[in-house]
Specification:
Strand content of chain B: 15-25%
Largest interface: A-B, 24 and 21 residues
Oligomer: heterodimer
Number of helices of chain B: 7
Distance between the termini of chain A: 53 Å
Strand content of chain A: under 5%
Order of helices and strands of chain B: HEEEHEHHEHEHEEEEH
Shape of chain A: globular
Largest sheet of chain A: none
Radius of gyration of chain A: 20 Å
Chain lengths: 275, 221
């Protein structure tokens, strides 16, 4: 009988293409869907006339939730947890850079404003300040790719779940100043948002260089994992570093292009700033 | 502003020193999973009683007799018992050694011999063993013998004899075998063994030192 695990972890056993259930991942994605449906059904006091279309938001949510499910569940989740650093990096990119903006885009502007009303303004403004979110993202990115941290967390399901959810939470915080309409910041227009994302393309340089140019494997988890598909540990690590840099840059520059296009369109219409 | 009191300052310095020590220790450990004896800075497990090189003869992958003692005389010899269907220990050990040796200059590399003895003669044909070893390094020597011969050799090195576990699946069975690599230096003794969990960084530190005569006459302790 297939053993049931609730979250992926490095198990040190030979890889097989036999399907493996991870109910913890399903519960997490199901909880996300339930939260979205409940938020959607909530009555709003004063609907905004220029709010984004429900179809667009639902598509964004489905994209975000599907991306999360894809990288947390078998086979990507299992491969990334215990066999290939490059797949682990794909998980990072999706959890921190792709799913969070899609999930944030799926929330109605009215719900954002309601949230801002409920939270204490000072701490809310501080936590979501772009300098704070960028510093947090940079710190978490470096810390969660530091070998002792990776090798301590990956062998256990709880540790791996902590790592996955930390990336997701950090990603949500990182994208907040770009996507969320609250708190309103006077000088925070399209140029600043683009500058913020350009700065973000640089913050992973240290980790990228460490992974790509270190001659020896840095993660015991992947170095001592049962071999998968003939790729060497060193090539896998180099690929992971390149994915972090090139993949991360591709995602961020796509977002920068979208922001620029919106800025241009709104300037053409004669309107101005905030998104 | 008030100057911090002496005890407080001392306490702060003590905390700072502890943090630096911990950070240093964490950096040095590089996430090691194996708990190795690091006597004298060696990354492998130093053997209290060095194992003498036993003379044995088995067939290599070309079918020629390979006299272990004479063929490896004067070289650092890494001896390992395993099988080509091994899912983890064997390919990880050999891949690590091969990756590190590729970084060595030719002069150093030519003084290391890796000898792999198959513990699964039923499935490891000479062709299969050669192809498998070539996937790591073409210089690796593959040896074959009967189960009885190989078990006797393992025992002569103080290793647990291998056993076939066909209970689960008679077609795709596992073979239990010693997980350590014995490193014989030029004095024909294995002073050090490398268990599963030895990392490339460990091999990269120890192999040049062993080749240069670590434990041998030139670097005798």
């Amino acid at each position: 009988m297939t053993e049931v695990l609730w979250w992926c972890a490095a198990r040190g056993v030979e890889w097989t293409w036999t399907w493996q259930a991870y109910p913890g991942v399903w519960l997490f994605v199901a909880a996300l869907v339930v939260a979205f449906v409940r938020l959607e059904r909530r009555e709003v006091d004063a609907p905004l006339p220029h709010a984004s279309s429900p179809m667009w938001r639902r598509t964004a949510f489905l994209g975000g939730a599907a991306a999360l499910w894809l990288v947390l569940d078998w086979p990507i989740g299992a491969l990334g947890a215990g066999y290939l650093a490059s797949v682990h990096m794909i998980q990072f990119l999706v959890l921190a850079l792709i799913a969070p903006p899609l999930l944030l885009l799926s929330i109605r502007e009215e719900d954002y404003r309601d949230l801002a009303r409920r939270l204490p303004e000072g701490p809310f403004r501080s936590v979501t300040h772009p300098l704070v979110t960028l510093a947090t993202f940079t710190t978490v990115l470096a810390a969660t790719h530091w070998p002792p941290v990776v090798d301590t967390l990956m062998p256990t399901q709880a540790g791996n779940m902590l790592l996955d959810l930390t990336w997701l939470a950090t990603g949500l915080l990182f994208w907040w100043p770009v996507v969320a309409p609250v708190p309103v910041r006077r000088s925070w227009g399209y140029p600043m948002k683009m500058g913020y994302l350009i700065a973000a393309t640089l913050v992973n340089t240290g980790t990228f260089a460490y992974l790509t140019f270190t001659a020896l494997p840095v993660f015991a988890t992947y170095e001592l994992a049962p071999p998968f598909s003939g790729i060497s540990t060193r090539d896998d690590q180099t690929l992971a570093g390149l994915l972090m840099k090139i993949g991360g840059a591709a995602i961020l520059w796509t977002a920068i292009t979208v922001l620029f296009a919106r800025w241009y369109r709104e300037s053409e219409r004669g309107g101005s700033t905030p998104a | 502003m008030r100057e911090p009191s002496q005890p407080l300052r001392r306490r702060c310095l003590a905390i700072l020193a502890t943090l630096i020590t911990l950070a240093g220790a964490a950096c040095g450990e590089e996430g090691r999973s194996a708990d190795l004896d690091r006597a004298d800075g060696w990354q492998g497990a130093v053997l209290e009683n060095p194992v003498p090189k036993v003379d044995f003869t088995l067939s290599d992958t070309e079918g020629r007799p390979f006299h272990f003692a004479s063929e490896t005389e004067g070289s650092l010899t890494l001896l390992f018992f395993g099988y080509t269907n091994c899912p983890d220990i064997c390919p990880i050990h050999l891949a690590s050694i091969a990756a590190v040796m590729r970084d060595f200059p030719h002069e150093l590399r030519s003084r290391v011999r890796v000898v792999f003895v198959s513990t699964d003669p039923q499935r490891d044909t000479p062709e299969r063993l050669r192809t498998w070893l070539d996937g790591f390094d073409k210089s690796f020597v593959g040896l074959l013998g009967t189960v009885e011969q190989v078990n006797a050799i393992e025992q002569s090195f103080g290793l647990t004899p291998s056993f076939v576990d066909q209970a689960q699946n008679p077609e795709r069975y596992l073979v239990g075998h010693a997980a350590q690599v014995l490193a014989f230096t030029t004095d024909n003794l294995a002073h050090i063994a490398y268990p599963f969990g030895t990392r490339q960084s460990d091999w990269a530190k120890d192999l040049p030192r062993l080749v240069r005569g670590g434990f041998g006459p030139r670097e005798a302790r």
